[in-house]
Amino acid sequence: MVKSMFSSKYVACLVSSIILNALFIINIFVGGQWNLSWTSRAAAEAETVAAISCSGHGRAYLDGLVVDGNEPVCECNTCYAGSDCSQFIPDCAANADGGDPLFLEPFWMRHVASSALVEAGWHRMSYTFNDHTFISKELERIIRKLHAIVGNAVTENRFIIFGAGSTQVLNAAAYALSLENTSSSTGIVASVPYYTLYKGQAEYFSSAKFKFQGDAYTWRKKSDAITNMIEFVTSPNNPDGRLNKQILHGPNVKTIYDRAYYWPHFTPIPAPADEDLMVFTLSKLTGHAGSRFGWAVIKDENVFNRMTAHININSMGVSMDSQLRAFKLLKAVLEGEGKEIFDFAYQTMKARWERLTMALSSSKRFSLQKNNPQYCIFYNRVREFSPAYAWLKCERKDDKDCYAVLKAAKIIGRQGNKFGSEDHYVRLSLVRSHDDFNILIDRLNKLVSEEDGAKTM
Amino acid sequence: MVKSMFSSKYVACLVSSIILNALFIINIFVGGQWNLSWTSRAAAEAETVAAISCSGHGRAYLDGLVVDGNEPVCECNTCYAGSDCSQFIPDCAANADGGDPLFLEPFWMRHVASSALVEAGWHRMSYTFNDHTFISKELERIIRKLHAIVGNAVTENRFIIFGAGSTQVLNAAAYALSLENTSSSTGIVASVPYYTLYKGQAEYFSSAKFKFQGDAYTWRKKSDAITNMIEFVTSPNNPDGRLNKQILHGPNVKTIYDRAYYWPHFTPIPAPADEDLMVFTLSKLTGHAGSRFGWAVIKDENVFNRMTAHININSMGVSMDSQLRAFKLLKAVLEGEGKEIFDFAYQTMKARWERLTMALSSSKRFSLQKNNPQYCIFYNRVREFSPAYAWLKCERKDDKDCYAVLKAAKIIGRQGNKFGSEDHYVRLSLVRSHDDFNILIDRLNKLVSEEDGAKTM
């Protein structure tokens, strides 16, 4: 009896132990962690930092500031403070200025396993890839595939070049299209309202080759007489989301189509874009502005070669780390049917536009741009625009400085004059974080509620 | 007896099972893998690719070309071929052209755990850091610490700016130092032999602001009469490794010290550099040329602000991915006393110089630059130079095209004229991979052995 009890205890112990072993084995094999060796330290480090709670109003990063001890501290969103970012700062101004595309951050939080990147210390130390170019062929392949799935650009028989964000690519394009070996300078224009960078770059880098010449409309009738013109066409336009077309035509006119926002989250896609030179950026596609990764799709080989030479002398190509990141992120985008990110991003932008329209619906003081719905080949139906920015107009004659009107109501937008336009206009960014957008809507609600003096707060 | 045997078997089983339990637990806790969740897929992926054997003559990368199936294939070093890079191509030319710093790759293979980087999909999507700058403060802190440990630069009370490699930083410096709002253009000079990029950039970006004016020596006596001059001083010099000092002096002369090679692997460090504007790069420190990360140490706040403005309009700062990579790599460098990488790199360069000197010791046709030993505050002793490049001279009058002489012997160097010098000179890169260097020495040995006709092969 004693022996029997003894052996049944043994059996119970043995069974437990075997079950525990089985669990370990399942954990290890299903978790795929069996062979992890040199990556485990860095992986544990990254997971530790990712697990730091910042109350949903901030984030800790691997390379974040370290105050006490060794772990990075929370970096709080605008209007939030405290060690865990839980304190709301009541009098804080809503930031609707820059185009930081943080509205996509929640998508990457949800797809954290497919988008995580593990990079060895010895990864691609060379200046170039094995084919002596600065361009990852696999990344190029993925970009072409993505354009094909979305249907927003023709890439067959086109060259693709990479740059440090569309910023560097746009400048390379302006240099490349300016004629070489000529004493006459090329004029650079864009139709008002235009993205301020075109003017900023053309003026900063002003050379014998090119000169900024203002609004494209003012050159419409003169353009035949002018030798060389480059028109920047932003489509969808920054700030107003319109699907701009070129204003100038003729044998001496060259165009650079800035297609940064030509993705289904912001606009109907009526047809694949098929211009001579089209510029795209990761920033407004996946939301990774900080990675500084942009590309151009180019028809002409000479233009491609000149742009390549420009990027080389400017920065010797694009960071291998940015290219690897873009590769990993776009691979995650393409998992499944490759439509999930667009659905997420479109729903987010659509919901934001609904809230914004609602907030301003009773206002006579402020109006928004109108873009009529169009057929979208990506969603196979007529749909509304949901642009990255609101192009707000202060309708009252006295509100000449719309930026100041908003600023007094604790809303920071961007002045109309920065887009070559009147200061009756202000651009409000709608692509920023959930927190920034919520505060913007709160401030707008308050401003509109005070419009006729009916409500005081 | 049967029962006893039965229970002793039980005991044996139980003990084994418990030992296995213990082993699993030790593996899990000591391996630090207990909690790995979202990183494990990417970690396994990276380890799988890293484990692909390329015979030590090539490497497979995460974003490498995929031919069959899903795994990237081996990318072979110059002169090696085959699916595992095991086939030597006998007639292949030695590549001693570019400054690809692959000589440091073995260091990172040895320190693979400390240098591995795990980056979440949501890592730093914004254009800027939380302080609204493009500069990681933690990375800046690490860079200052590294300069302090090495003793190669004074960084106290200096500003630090980042750029896409020293390439972008050098151009930003030239723009920043060119006077604003003036009709007279600034001359840009460098003493022969000089790094060709200074000329290339100045000519390509030639504007109303600056113009390339050739060799600094020819302006030595004229410089007082000239309004504005910028002298690029490369110290140690590329191509010859000399610790250059500025040639021009005076109130209208500004200098940009290119300190890319001012690290203990290449040169004695006589004292901490303390110039107004010093440029460094990750490429020649850790070997990560592909990461495009450089920095400048700047005394004057106005110059710092202008350079910041330049980098912003050119590329809106530096890739967050490059900054995170630099952060991780430099943190690994600083582990322990922070001297291990310099010891490895110095020993490698020293050994290469010994082999090179030996190969050319019996030659009367070819000579190398001579740099007299100097006291090094890093190693606390007098030591030889071990520059990144050999500045080879073809001594025969007939060998006017030294590049062609070497090319005929299947050695690809870089022509003297690219450095503003005579074509009696050729630069040979000594910082490339072990394979490239071995082939170079083989080819040189053969070339020298044929010099007097004594040997034929």
From TrEMBL, chains A, B:
<feature type="domain" description="Alliinase C-terminal">
    <location>
        <begin position="94"/>
        <end position="448"/>
    </location>
</feature>
<dbReference type="InterPro" id="IPR015422">
    <property type="entry name" value="PyrdxlP-dep_Trfase_small"/>
</dbReference>
<dbReference type="InterPro" id="IPR006947">
    <property type="entry name" value="EGF_alliinase"/>
</dbReference>
<keyword id="KW-0808">Transferase</keyword>
<dbReference type="InterPro" id="IPR015421">
    <property type="entry name" value="PyrdxlP-dep_Trfase_major"/>
</dbReference>
<dbReference type="InterPro" id="IPR006948">
    <property type="entry name" value="Alliinase_C"/>
</dbReference>
<protein>
    <submittedName>
        <fullName>Tryptophan aminotransferase-related protein 4-like isoform X1</fullName>
    </submittedName>
</protein>
<keyword id="KW-0663">Pyridoxal phosphate</keyword>
<dbReference type="GO" id="GO:0008483">
    <property type="term" value="F:transaminase activity"/>
</dbReference>
<dbReference type="InterPro" id="IPR050478">
    <property type="entry name" value="Ethylene_sulfur-biosynth"/>
</dbReference>
<keyword id="KW-0032">Aminotransferase</keyword>
<keyword id="KW-1133">Transmembrane helix</keyword>
<dbReference type="InterPro" id="IPR015424">
    <property type="entry name" value="PyrdxlP-dep_Trfase"/>
</dbReference>
<keyword id="KW-0472">Membrane</keyword>
<dbReference type="Pfam" id="PF04863">
    <property type="entry name" value="EGF_alliinase"/>
</dbReference>
<dbReference type="Pfam" id="PF04864">
    <property type="entry name" value="Alliinase_C"/>
</dbReference>
<keyword id="KW-0812">Transmembrane</keyword>
<dbReference type="GO" id="GO:0016846">
    <property type="term" value="F:carbon-sulfur lyase activity"/>
</dbReference>
<feature type="transmembrane region" description="Helical">
    <location>
        <begin position="12"/>
        <end position="34"/>
    </location>
</feature>
<comment type="similarity">
    <text>Belongs to the alliinase family.</text>
</comment>
<dbReference type="GO" id="GO:0006520">
    <property type="term" value="P:amino acid metabolic process"/>
</dbReference>
<feature type="domain" description="Alliinase EGF-like">
    <location>
        <begin position="37"/>
        <end position="92"/>
    </location>
</feature>
<dbReference type="InterPro" id="IPR037029">
    <property type="entry name" value="Alliinase_N_sf"/>
</dbReference>
